[in-house]
Amino acid sequence: MADINPSTEFVIHRVQTEQDFKQWIPSLARLLLICVNDDSYSSLGFRAPLSEAKATEYWESLLSSFVGPEANSVLFMLSRASGPGGNAVATVHIASQPKETHAHKVEVRKLLVDSAERGHGLGRKLMDAVEEYAARELGKTLVLLDTSTVSPARAFYLRLGYREWGTCPDYSTNAAGVLHDTSFFYKKLACQDPGC
């Protein structure tokens, strides 16, 4: 497993092997449980109360997305440098599109931060790492994402320089089962290719 952007307090990890991924599944499942069950406004694809078994099953179902010949996503986890290995306090992944006409972009999925670790700038650290990796390693020039319009995440993405290009009424339900509008965002990345 490669560690990138280490700091004195937190370290960002990127999954590269099946063994790496399996090591992180218990803490990824715990993180998903916290974000779904503790935040009724969250819109992460699950209803509360989310069970540990269902959270674990979700992450296990993504193995081929992160590792192997069919992989189209890159998973980042952030842990405390002083803590045990494999204990994620935040995570995010990016997915590429298989279509040739969409090869220039990635989509941000499941930015999760442990509620006990919020306020340390972890979401920003992960998003900075994702953008740098997408541009430098994958040659991408556009990042897309969406979030609930009423979520604090909307203001967070605006602060990071994402542009809101539209909203869809009643696009999804939150963890409590209430319909909400969803905001869609994009951010253009600086081209890292010397030929630009």
Automatic annotation (TrEMBL):
Residues 31-191 form the N-acetyltransferase domain. InterPro entries: Acyl_CoA_acyltransferase, Bact_Acetyltransf, GNAT_dom. It holds the Pfam family Acetyltransf_7. GO terms for molecular function: acyltransferase activity, transferring groups other than amino-acyl groups. It comes from the Eukaryota. Keywords: Acyltransferase, Transferase. PANTHER family: AMINOALKYLPHOSPHONATE N-ACETYLTRANSFERASE-RELATED (PTHR43877:SF2), AMINOALKYLPHOSPHONATE N-ACETYLTRANSFERASE-RELATED-RELATED (PTHR43877). This is Acyl-CoA N-acyltransferase.
